[in-house]
Write a structure and sequence with these properties.
Rossmann fold; 2 domains; binds nicotinamide-adenine-dinucleotide; alpha/beta; 7-stranded mixed beta sheet; 428 residues
Length: 428
C-alpha cells in the first residue's frame, strides 16, 4: 500500500479479514463487522470572521455497539475523509474490546484546518457539528472525545451546545473535557502513559533494562509528548522526535543523541505539537528530514503522529537495532510492512493495545462524569496501569500460546469478544 493510494478503511478491512479467516467467522458475523452499523454526514454553515460564509463537512460513524454505548474521537483535519473515519470507528471497536471496557466503536470529524481558523470560528464549527448530530449522540448512545487537532476547549464547547439543546447538565456526553469542568485528571497524559505501561511490560518480556533503552518518536502532540515524558521519567532515553512544520508544509525530525530535554523542548512547541525549527536549532538539536525518525539506531520506535507511516517502501530503513515498535498513532503500519516486521522478529505493540490508554481513561471520565464524582490523579493512573497491564498480558498470552504476531493476537481477542456480544444479543 503506497502512501499516495492509501485508504485507511481498506487497511482496517484487510486486517479484519485476516482475523476473520483465522477465526473462521460465519458469513453474517463477517458481514456485520466488515461495515459500520451507522453513518451520518452533515453540512455545517459558518459565518466567518471576514463576513464570508463557508460550509464545512462533518461526519459521525458508529461501527459497532454490541458491547455498549459507542465511543470515539472527533478529528479536525483538512484531509479528513469518510474512509479515515470509518477506519478509526472500526479500530475503536477493537480497541475497547481488547481493553475489555464496555463500549463500542465510533469516530467523527470535520474537514477543516484549525491552523487557519480563529477560535471563534472553531467554536462555531464545534457547536454546528453538535447541532447537526445531537440526536445520534449522548451518554448512553455515542460519546465523543478529542483526536487530532481537537482539544479540551473544543470538547467543552460541544458539551455546552449539547446541554443547551437538551436543557440539562449531561457531563457524560463527551470526554477529554478540561479538569474542573467534568474532565478526568490524567486524561491528557493517558494515551502516552498507557503506551509506556505496555512498553514497560514488553521490555520485561524481552529481558531488556529500561535505563539502557533508547527510542525515536514520530510526532510531538498529545500522545507522543506524554509517552516521551513518562519514558524519560522512568529512565529511558528519547533521541529523536518529529513533527509537522506548518510554515514549510513538511515534517522534520529533531535529534539529540544524549536525549532530548523534554521540558525545554516544550517551551518551543505550539498547541498543535509543532516545534519552532529555528529555536530548536539554537538549543542544539540536529534538524533532519521528516522520515529520519524511522532510521535511527534505537531500541524502540514509537510512531505517534498519523496513519500509514511504516510501509513496504520504507520498512527496510528501520534499523536492525530496533527490537520493539509501540504504535501510539492509529494505523501507522501498513499490512505489507507488518509481514516484514513480523519476519524480522521485532516485537510489535499494536495500536489497538498500545494507545488504548486514551479510551480507557475516557471511559473512566465517562463514569466519573455520570456520577459527578471525580477521582484523584493517582487513582486514575493506578486503574489505568491495571487495565493496560491486564490487556497486554492477555494479548501476550494468546501470542505465545498460538505462536501469533502480537497484532494478530490482539485482533483475535477483540473480534471474538465483539462477535460474541452480537451473538448473545441475537443479532447474528
Ligand atoms: P495531535 O494533533 O496532538 O499531534 C499530532 C502530532 O503529529 C503533532 O506533533 C504533529 O506535528 C505531528 N504530525 C502530523 N503530521 C506529521 C507528519 N507527517 N510527520 C511527522 N509528524 C506529524 O494528535 P494526537 O492526539 O497526539 O494523536 C496522534 C495519533 O494518536 C493519531 O493517530 C490519533 O488518532 C492517535 N490517538 C490519539 C489519542 C488521543 O487521546 N488524543 C488516543 C489514541 C490514539
Amino acid at each position: 500500500m503506497s502512501k499516495t493510494s492509501f485508504n485507511p478503511f481498506v487497511m482496517a478491512q484487510t486486517q479484519f479479514n485476516k482475523t476473520a479467516d483465522v477465526l473462521e467467522l460465519d458469513g453474517p458475523t463477517r458481514d456485520l463487522l466488515y461495515h459500520p452499523m451507522k453513518e451520518y454526514q452533515c453540512s455545517i454553515p459558518i459565518h466567518m470572521d471576514d463576513g464570508s460564509k463557508r460550509i464545512f463537512r462533518g461526519f459521525r460513524i458508529m461501527h459497532n455497539n454490541g458491547r455498549g454505548p459507542a465511543k470515539g474521537g472527533i478529528r479536525f483535519h483538512p484531509q479528513e475523509t469518510i474512509d479515515t473515519i470509518r477506519a478509526l470507528a472500526m479500530w475503536m471497536t477493537w480497541k475497547c474490546a481488547v481493553a475489555d471496557i464496555p463500549l463500542g466503536g465510533s469516530s467523527g470529524g470535520v474537514i477543516c484546518d484549525p491552523h487557519n481558523l480563529s477560535m471563534r470560528e472553531q467554536e462555531l464549527i464545534c457547536r454546528g457539528w453538535v447541532r447537526q448530530l445531537c440526536n445520534n449522540l449522548g451518554p448512553n448512545i455515542d460519546v465523543p472525545e478529542p483526536d487530532i487537532m481537537t482539544s479540551a476547549q473544543h470538547m467543552l464547547w460541544m458539551l455546552d451546545e449539547y446541554e443547551t439543546i437538551r436543557g440539562e447538565k449531561l457531563p457524560g456526553f463527551i470526554t477529554g473535557k478540561p479538569v474542573g469542568m467534568g474532565g478526568s485528571l490524567a486524561r491528557k497524559e493517558a494515551p502516552g502513559f498507557g503506551l509506556v505501561f505496555a512498553l514497560r511490560e514488553a521490555l520485561k518480556e524481552l529481558e531488556m533494562k529500561l535505563e539502557n533503552t533508547t527510542a525515536s518518536v514520530q510526532g510531538f502532540g498529545m500522545v507522543a509528548r506524554s509517552a516521551v515524558q513518562l519514558f524519560q521519567q522512568i529512565g529511558g532515553t528519547v533521541k529523536c522526535v518529529s513533527c509537522w512544520d506548518q510554515n514549510d508544509q513538511t515534517s522534520y525530525c529533531y535529534r539529540k543523541n544524549e536525549g532530548i530535554d523534554f521540558e525545554t523542548l516544550l517551551t518551543v512547541t505550539d498547541v498543535f505539537g509543532g516545534i519552532d525549527k529555528a529555536k530548536a536549532a539554537d538549543m542544539g538539536y540536529e534538524i533532519l528530514p521528516g522520515d529520519a525518525w524511522l532510521e535511527q539506531d534505537v531500541d524502540v520506535l514509537i510512531p505517534a503522529a498519523i496513519e500509514n507511516q511504516i510501509t513496504a517502501e520504507n520498512v527496510d530503513k528501520v534499523s536492525k537495532k530496533v527490537k520493539i515498535i509501540a504504535e501510539g498513532a492509529n494505523g501507522p503500519t501498513s499490512p505489507d510492512a507488518d509481514s516484514e516486521i513480523a519476519e524480522r522478529g521485532v516485537f510489535m505493540i499494536p495500536d489497538l493495545l498500545a494507545n488504548s490508554g486514551g479510551v480507557i481513561c475516557s471511559y473512566f471520565e465517562q463514569v466519573q462524569s455520570n456520577m459527578n464524582y471525580y477521582w484523584e490523579r493517582d487513582e486514575v493512573l493506578g486503574k489505568l496501569d491495571v487495565k493496560m497491564t491486564a490487556a497486554f498480558e492477555a494479548v501476550l498470552d494468546m501470542a505465545r500460546k498460538r505462536n501469533m504476531y502480537m497484532r494478530d493476537a490482539a485482533y483475535s481477542i477483540a473480534v471474538v469478544r465483539v462477535a460474541q456480544a452480537c451473538k448473545d444479543r441475537g443479532w447474528i
